Amino acid sequence: MKLLNNAKFYSMRNEGDLFSAVLVDNDKIKDIFTNIPDIKNVEKIDLNGSYVYPGFIDTHTHSFEGGLYSFGVNLEDAKSLNEVFAKLAETEPISGKILAFKFDENNIKEKRFPTSQELDKIFPDIPVFLRRVDGHSCVINTIAAKQIDWEKLLPDNFNGYLNKRLNGKASNWFQKNITDEYILQTYKKAAELAIKTGHTTVHTMIGDAKSDIKHLKLIEDNINSFPVDFVLYPQITDVDKTLELGSPRIGGCILADGSFGSHTAALLEPYNDQPDNFGCLYHSDEFWENFIRKAHNNNLQIAVHCIGDAAISQILKFYEKVQMEQPKDLRHEIIHNELTSDEILDRIAQTRVSAVMQPTFDRLWGGENALYETRLGKERTFRTNRLASIYNRGILLTGSSDWYITEMNALKGIDAAVRIHNENERLTPYQAVEIYTKNAARLSFDEDRLGTIEIGKQADMVCLNEDIFSSESITDIKIKYVIKKGEIKEL
Fold it and tell me: Measured between alpha carbons, how far is 251 from 455 in angstroms, rounded to an integer?
C-alpha cells in the first residue's frame, strides 16, 4: 500500500471538503485522513506540497484525429497563404498523405482558403487534406479528389473547398486509409498528451457518423494498453450495430448542424453577416425521431452535436418526446449547446438532458468584434456558452475540449469557465473544477468509480503546484504529478 502525503487533497464531494493524506491499495483508495496517520509497512509518497484534485475527465474529444494531426502540420499561427504553403512543404507524409489542421481563413491576410490548384503545385502526386479550425470545412488537392469515391461527381469548377457532407466524406477517406499500427500510435499519442495535461479519463468518438464504426473494435481490443481510460462512443446512427457491440451509448459528433465559423450552424434567426442564411439542419425531423426513439427504447445514451439554437431545438424536441413516453435516466447529451435561450435551457432541465460544453470556445471566439459577434451580433453573443445559467438550473454540465478543435487542457478550460466574457455566465472555480471531475464522471455513469477522492474509488488524481481555488491565473498552474490507478505517471 502507499500513503500519499504532504499535500492538500480536495475530494470534490463538497466544497471545502479536504484531506491531508490518502491511503492507496493497488488501484483503489483505501482510506482518507484529515491528519497524517502513523501507519506501518506502507510506502510513503511525498507529494511535495501539491494541491491534489480528482483526475481531470475530458468528456468530448476526437482523440484519433487529435493524435493523428499531432503528427501533421498545425496552421494556427499562419498569417498568409505563403506561410501555409511553406509549412505544408516542410511536412512529412502520414501513410502517404499530407494532413494539416487548425487553418483559419480569418487569420491570414488573404482572408480565403487555398485552392486545390495551389496545393497541386506543392504536392501534385500526394493527397493533401487541409482542415479548417472548426473541422466543418476543408480543402483537398486534385489527386485526393480523384481518389475519393464520391457519391456524385464534383462540379467541373471544383476548387478544392468542401463543407457539410462532402467535408465528412473527405475526412473519413483520409482516416480510413491508415494502417492499424499507425492508428494505435495515434491513440497512444493522444493518451500521452492527456496525461501531460492532467487527464486520467478521456471520452472519444469513433465512427463516420453513419454506419461505419471505423477502428472502434481495434481500440476496444487494446483498451488496457493506454495510460488513460478511454470512454468510447460508437459515432454512428446504426442502433442495431451499436447493440451488437454491447455499447451503452451511441453518437458523439453525429451532426444536427455545422458550425458558426463555416456559417452552417442552424439558427432560428439569420446570420448577422449573411442576412439570408439561417445555416443548415443536416437531417429531417423524421430521421431524428426514428433514431432517437429506437436508441432510447433500447436504453442507449444518445449524444448529438448541436451548435445553433435551431439544431438544439430540433434534437430537444425528440428527447422530450421519448422521455415523456418512457421516462429513463439515460443522461442523453447535447454536445456544444452553444446558442440557447432561457426557454431552451428550461426545457433541457426539465427533460434531464446533459450539456457537454467547451469553455475554451468562448476564450477563442467570444468578446468584442470576435467570431461570435461577427456571425451572430452583440445580443445573441450574450446567449452563447451559458455555463452559469445551465449549472444553476441543475442541468448536468460537463467540461471538454472538443480536441483537436481546441487544446486538450482542462486547466485552460477551467480558467475559461471562470472568466467567460459574459460575466453573468461565469462559474466559480469550484464549479469549474466540478464539470471536469464529479460531473464528468456522472455523464458516463461512473460516479461510483471516478470523479471524487473517496474511499473505494479508483486512485486517479492530478497534483498541482498551486491551488486552483485561490489562483489568479489558472492557466499558469503547473502539473507536478498525475496518479492513475495508484501509479505516478511520467510527465
Answer: 33
Considering the entire predicted model, what is its pTM? 0.89
Q: What is the pLDDT of residue 177?
A: 74
C-alpha torsion angle, residues 310, 315, 316, 321 (rounded to 10): 130
* DSSP assignment string, 26-77: TTEEEEEESS----SS-EEEEEEEEEEEEPEEEEEE-HHHHHHHTTSEE-TT
* pLDDT tens sequence across 360-381: 999 999 999 999 999 999 999 9
In the block, cell 455513469 appears at 445
CA-to-CA dists, residue 486 to 168, 226, 451, 462, angstroms:
40, 15, 15, 11
- Residue 389's alpha-carbon distances to 288, 353, 355, in angstroms, are 27, 14, 11
Instruction: Mention every residue, 6+ apart, whose C-beta is less than 8 A from residue 334.
Output: 304, 306, 312, 315, 316, 348, 353, 354, 355, 356
d(CA 172, CA 129): 11
Q: Which CATH number fits domain 180-450: 3.40.50.300, 3.40.50.720, 1.10.3290.10, 3.20.20.140?
A: 3.20.20.140
Residue 309, φ and ψ in degrees, nearest 5: -65, -30
CATH superfamily of 1-54+453-491: Urease, subunit C, domain 1 (2.30.40.10)
Question: Candidates 3.40.50.1220, 3.30.870.10, 3.40.630.10, 3.10.310.70; correct CATH number of 65-176?
Answer: 3.10.310.70
Please tell me the predicted confidence (pLDDT) of residue 301. 98
Of 306, 250, 301, 260, whose CA–CA distance to 283 is shortest? 306
Alpha-carbon distance 217 to 64, whole Å?
Answer: 14
DSSP 8-state assignment for residue 351 = H
